[in-house]
Every structure is written in structure tokens, then in C-alpha cells.
Amino acid sequence: MAAGDLDAALVAAIDAGRDVIVPDRHRAAALRLAWARRQLKQGRQVWSTPAIHTWDAWLAQRWREAALRGEVAPLQLLSAGQERALWEAVLARLAPPGEDEATLTLHAGALMQSAARAVQSRIAPERTAHSREESLLATALAEVRRECAARGLLTLRLASADTLQFLRHVPAPMIAGEPALTALQSALARECWPGATLLAPQPEAPSGVHTRLLRAGDLEQELAACARWCRAHIERNAGARLLVISACIEPSLAIQSELLWRSLAAGTDADDLARARWLAVEGGEPLLHQALVTAAIEALELIASDEEIPTGSLLNLLRSPYFTWGTAAGTASLGQWFGELGLGRWHATTLREALREAGRREPAAARLEQWMAGSATQLPAREKVGATVWAERFAAALEGAPFAPPASLDSRDSQRLTRWHELLDEFAGLDAVLPPMGRGAALARLRRLASQARHQPASGDAAVTLTDALGDPVAGYDAIWVLGLTETRWPAPPRPDSWIALTEQWRAGWPEAGVSQRRAQAHWALACWKARAGELMLSYPEREGDVVHRPARVAEAGVEWSAVSPEPPTEVTGLAPPAQDAQLGPILPAERQAPLRGGAGRLATQQACAFRAQAQCRLGAEPPARAWAGVPPATRGRMLHLVLQHFWNAVKDQSGLLALDPAAESEVLQRSWEAAVRATPVARWLAPQVLQRERQRTLALLANVLQLERDRPPFTVEACELPVTWNGDDARLTLRIDRIDRVGDTAVLLDYKSGAPARIALHEGELQPLQLALYAAALAQQGRTVGAAALLNLKPHEPDIAGVSQDPALLPAGTREIEDWGQALQQWEQQLLELMRAHLSGDATLTRDPAVCARCHLPSLCRRAGAEVAPEEGADETVAGETT
Q: By CB neighbour count within 10 A (0-12 exposed, 13-18 middle, 19+ buried), where does 266 fall?
């Protein structure tokens, strides 16, 4: 059989104007395309579209026609979404005392499906129920039917043969793609269409069908072999139509399609349009997985939030291509600002305050704040109204953004937008089964509805169709390849329905009810595959991770499983060898005239890994911003610096500190804290309880720090937050020194460190920590020589001072002494100059420190990607030059 070929019985039925019923909408689409290919082959340019439906869609269409003719009672026909909502409401009422209603309603979809199958098989759950699950289905089904009768509702999925007697006036359809009629269909055939043949005859495989059995090393190799087979067919015949069926459950069909497409498009310049012509994937994805729908729901939840708003949701809103808040650069700048603030969550009022402040310099912030303010009034929190009203309000709120203007969308996004509007219509239809609800419940229901609905963009007659439907393809194809036929997957293992008595499932012949039924189902599917294609390929992967597979038992006389042919090696060019270092061009003289951004951190990153420094500073590959649930570390560090600055500006020296009694010290710290909060915008946007906890933490920490300061040799604070510049190789770095003390006649440099302690190695001739050497060198260039340089580690419970000095009496015990201080200063200056020259020249040498690689954010860009970077035994795991 080739593409466009159909069974004679199907052709006769369509020519006679009979409705054709197939298992699912994908088979319906495939059959319509096959009919179109047949008409084109016969030279026709215009033809009537055949009536091809699923059973549920056909029943609904015929019932509506009967309702228009007045042949049935005027009831409201429930959609699938309305029926599920009704089942959820019924199950919530049936939850026993002490059991969570939400847990029970999670089974609504499965119960609804089981009830529909029971009706199709004419099983009466109330007569066969024994277990708790079976009794729950029987009780829920009776309650759903009672609700429908009381409220004038109708669900055709639960309709008996008596309810479907309106079909007497409808021509008999033909049912294709099924091994047998259901009990309900057989009853309707006897009562409504006596003498008519409903079930399409079993297809027979033509003689000469070529079947091959192949084994692959793994799924990726299997898909690659399938892709080569597809390309070979299409290159021989551009009009070939191929079907690829996958029995693999993991990875998902979407991931399998990506792997298949990667192999199909290898070595070509294929784009999205080419992909649509080459490959179609059946099944679609949950509507909630579509970026457009996710953006719409997240935006509604953001403006209607009564709780704190996650920064991630805010950034998603700013980055979404379906909203326009201003220029792309302005919106990106606003998103970067929020990312740099580091707050993990925002209260709605605080967020709008921050947006108003940012709006003074960025129009995108002002527009976003105005939209949030206006939309919040459209979605009142305490009002309970019907789903229709909420749907109208949701649409109006998004329209004010505006959301997804149709002129800015491509074909696929336009289809998604249409599906979103259909989802709002489905949501509005819930008024038929649900009472009025509040804003939070309405949004939760809308999100749940989007997760249950599926969407697949319309596509043309693609050359290759990928599906996970293991049944009858119904339409003919030039060739079929079935993937993943391992012993554990095909025939599929029994999986009886837990809501229906097993004996009833056996009586009805459900395929999943037992081993013999599964075996019969597999033999039937194999016969269908042979009948629908001129060539049949069956394959399986020998291994998936640590799991070793055996092939399915396929009865093919004289045919053995053979290995797939290996893929020809692909030569990759243009990549540097992993061990080869690279270099960018030197920084331009014009760039050197202005201070290089990054300060001491720029040189520290160059010291740790030159590649990372060039990527960050020259190419903009900055690490992604992190959002913190509490106080962001950068904010905490800034506030600690400001509190200490204000405190020492008030106290001046150690003698002033010693003169303070506990009450006076607490008062000065409190004033310093309040000044720091006023100078830190982020602090104003922290939740009051978070800010109070941070105040307590800071004051407790500084009490320990001040005790450490009392035990030092006498000192005077000479400068706090002193701006300086270091000049190196015609380039400048702007620095800020936390503090300079005067001990006797000697200046002592102090750098506050609120992060992890750094390794001290300056006395060993190594620039660790680099910032101390850099600050000392910058002061020396200004003629201000220091005699000691140290880190004041602001650890919460045990702060300490660690550094180097020319005289042990300058700092507390434990600091490292350097005998020849002047020579050390010259050595640091020389090392800093060499480091700056390497940076300016574009040096991008890879680090040799595994600990640096372990904390890098650029592994996918590094030439060492994929290499093992585990620290060597005994290696120091401190990141060189990394400071907070």
C-alpha cells in the first residue's frame, strides 16, 4: 500500500456519503489527507471533504442536529471540560470525613474515562462493585447522573442505548481502525441500523510486503537510523509519505521528535518551515506548556496576587515576547535591575512602589506599573461571580497590556492565541456546572483547565509523521517504521482498570485487562501495520542507560534481528582542541582611557581564570542573577559596610569606642542602622519581618566585631569608603577601600568581608587575596604607604582579622609578618601589572585550578566542556581571587 491508498470498503463508504468514525482526531486528519492525495492522483482539483469523526464528536454533532429538529429533549450538552468539572465537584462532596477533597478530585479524569468505557461496554458498576475503588466509581457515576437529571444536563459519554435512539434517523456510519465494535455500538447497530455493517473489514496485508527487524545500540542510534531511512525514501520519491510509530514511553514524544529532526536535518540549512514540511508530530502538548498561554496565566496571577510575587514570575513577564512594555533595550534594562536587586519575592504594594521609582528613568517600568494598577481594579479579590464574568475580566485585563497583538504573531502563535481564546470560552462554560467563585479559585481553575487541554498546531501534509499510537494507522503509507519494540513494551504489560471489576473487563475484552488480550492486541496491530504500508521496519534499542533490552517476539518466519548500519562519521571543523588556549584582540586604547568596569573583581577573575574574565568583561557572559528568599548577600554586605561607615564616622577611634557604655553603643549602632537602611533602596522593599530579623542579626554581629576592635592595639579611623584609582599599563581601575586606620604613625588597610573567608598567601609572594595587594598598590601610587593590610571577616559568631603586616604589633595576633615590606609592595605591583597586561592583551588561558571550574557558570562555552574537573587529592578548594 502506498500513500493515498485506502481500503475499498472505506472508499465505498466515503463515496456513498457515509460518516466514517476513527479512534482519534489524528487518525481522522491522516485519513482526510490520504483522501486528498487520492483525489489529486485521480486528477481532481475540487472535491467534497469526507465526514470523518471520532465517536464522541460524531455523537455530539448528530445530537445537535436532532435537537434542532426537535427530536430530543432540550438539554444542555456538556463539553469534556464541563463534564470533568462536574465530576470534580461530585468527588469533592463524596470525600469521607478526614480525607482531603483535593486528593480525591485528582482522580476525576480517570474516573470519568472509566465510566465512559463502562457505558460503552454496557457494564453496570453498581452491580459489580466490591472494592473501595469500584464502589467509588459506582457512587460517583450515580451522583453525576443524578446531577445531570436535576439540572437539565446531558453527557453523551454516559448515554445509554435508550438515550441514543435519535440515531434511528441517522444513516449508519462506518467504524474503522478498531478490532471490534463495543457492546453499545453493537446494540445500536441492532436497534437503529438492522442489517447494516458498521465495522470496517479487517485489512489484509498485500503480498510482497517487505519486513525488516533491526536492533540498535540505544534509542539515539535507533532514531538516527530511522532518520537516514526516511531521507533515503524522500530522496527517491519526493512525494513519499512515511509513518514512524514509537513504543517508547521515555523520553517523551516531543524529545524523540527533536532527536529525529536533528538527524533528519543534519548537514542541511533546514529552518522551521522546512521542519513543518518534513516532520509532523501527533499528540500535541498540554496547553499550559505553550509559552503564550503560560505567559497569559502568569500575568493574570501576578496582577491578582494577594500573596508575595516571585521575582521569577516578574522577570518572565518582562522577558515574554507576548507583552510589550517599551523598547527591547529598556525592558531588558528593567529586568536586569530587578535581577541585580536579588530579592526573591515582592509584595504587590512594594513592587508597584519599586516600579514607580524605576519609572522615573525607565518608561517600561512606568507602563508596567500603570497596567498592574488598572488591571488590579478589574479583578476584585473578594467578589464571587460566575466563570463567564471572570473570563471577560481576564480577557479585558490582558487586552490592557496589550497581550499578543495578532499583527506581531507568526502562524503557529496565531493558532495558539486562537486556542487561548477557546480556552477562555471553555472556562466560561463552567457556569453550567460550577457555582460562583472568587478570584483565586477562578485563576486556579483556569490553570487546571489549561493543564488538561492539549494543543497541536495545524500542519500540512508532512513527509514524515511521528506518533505513539500503536493501533491501526487507518490510512496507507509508503513505509512504516516502528521504534522501541522491546520485550517489556510490546506486547504491552497488562494494566487493568482499577475502577472496574476485573471479571467485567475480561468479559468486555478490554486489551489492557490481561496477557492474552495484550497479545491479541499486538498481533492485530502488526497485521494492520503490514496492511497499511509497502515496507515495514521494526526496531528496538539494546540498551537504555543501565537497562539491557531483549527484542519483542515478532512471528516472522526466517527473519532475524540484524544490527542497524553504523552512521557515517561526521567531520567537525572549526573547533579548537580542548587543550589549546585562545586569545581575543587587545583592548583598544580608547577603552583604556576610561576606568575599566569591575574594579578589583575584574583582576581577581582574570587571576582565577583568564577565559572566564574575557568572557565576562569582554563578551558580556555575566553569571545569571540569583533571587534570594531573604536578604540578598549583596544587599547584606552593602548594609554592613554602611553601618560600619556611619558608626566610625561618629566614634572616630578606639578611645571613643572604649568610652561608650552598652546603652550608648546600642544607640550609635541603631542610628547607623537607620542611616544604612535609608541609603539602601532594596531595604525599603524588604518585608518588615525580614528587615527586623536582619537588624537583629546585624547588631548582634557588630557587637562581636566591636569587641574584637577593643582588643586591638590603639588606632584612629582615618578614612572609610575611600575612593582610589590604580593605574596599570595605561589602564585604570576605580576602587573603594573600606577603611584605613592609623596605628601610631603607620597606616593599616582593612577590607570588610561578609562572605566566605579567603586564603591569605601574600607573605608567600602570591596575590591572595588580590584586593589587599591592589588596594595597597593604589595607595602607594598616591604616595600613601600602608604598613599592614588585612581582611576583617564579618562572620556572625566569630569575626576575626587576617592579613599581613610589616610589624606584628600593628594587628592582633595571628596576622602574617613580612620582613621586607617595601620589596613586597614592589613585588605586588609588578605582579598586578603583569596580570593587567595579560588581561588587556586578550589572554583567555584556561585555568588549571579544578576548584575554579567547579564554580564556573560557563561550562557550556568553555573549551574544557565535558572534561572531568574533580579536585585533585589534597588540592586547596578555595577559589583563587574570589571575593564578596
A: middle
Helix (H) or strand (E) holding 390, with range, is helix 387-399
Residue with cell 463502562: 118
Output phi, psi for 212, to 5 deg: -125, 140
β-partners of residue 385 are 437
Tell me the pLDDT band of 873, cut-offs 50, 70 and 90. Answer: very low
Q: What is the dihedral sign for C-alpha 351, 354, 359, 362?
A: negative
pLDDT band for position 579 (cuts 50, 70, 90): very low
Q: What is the 3-state secondary structure (H, E, C) of 247-271?
A: CCCCCCHHHHHHHHHHHHCCCCCCC
Alpha helices in 841-873 (DSSP H): 850-854
* The pairing of beta strand 454-455 with beta strand 285-286: antiparallel
Q: How far apart are CA 317 and CA 296, in angstroms?
A: 9
**At residue 626, what are phi and psi to the nearest 5 degrees?**
-110, 140
Size of the chain in residues: 884
Please tell me the predicted confidence (pLDDT) of residue 577.
Answer: 45
* Structure confidence at residue 162 (pLDDT): 92
Distance CA 437, CA 725 (A): 63
Find the largest Cα–Cα distance for the chain. 116
Residue 111 near residue 140, CB atoms below 8 Å:
yes
Torsion angle (degrees, nearest 10) of CA 66, 68, 70, 71? 0
Phi/psi at 657 (nearest 5 deg)?
Answer: -65, -45
Cis peptide before 799 (omega within 30 of 0): no
Contacts of 145 (CB under 8 A, 6+ apart): 158
User: What pLDDT is recorded for position 849?
Assistant: 82
Mean pLDDT of the chain: 88
Helices 600-608 and 770-781 meet at what angle, rounded to 10?
130
Rounded Cα–Cα distance for residues 706 and 643 (Å): 12
Question: Is the pLDDT confidence value at 558 over 50?
Answer: yes
DSSP 415-429: HHHHHHHHHHHHHHG
Grid cell digits, residue 328: 527591547
Residue 727 CA: distances (Å) to CA of 302, 483, 774, 777: 48, 65, 10, 9
What's the confidence (pLDDT) of residue 877? Answer: 36
Q: Specify the residue for cell string 582610589.
A: 724
Lowest-confidence segment of 142-156, 501-515, 708-722, 807-821 by average pLDDT: 807-821
C-alpha to C-alpha distances, 535 to 92, 245, 321, 482, 551, nearest whole angstrom: 52, 14, 45, 11, 20
Q: How far is CA 474 from CA 288, 523, 795, in A?
A: 30, 16, 71
If you search the block for the grid coordinates 453496570, which residue do you land on? 124
> What's the predicted TM-score (pTM) here?
0.81
- Phi, psi of 152, rounded to the nearest 5 degrees: 70, 40
Smallest Cα–Cα separation from 501: which of 825, 134, 847? Answer: 134
Peptide bond just before 769 cis, omega within 30 deg: yes
Cell numbers for 526, please give them.
502488526
Asked if pLDDT for residue 869 goes beyond 50, the answer is: no
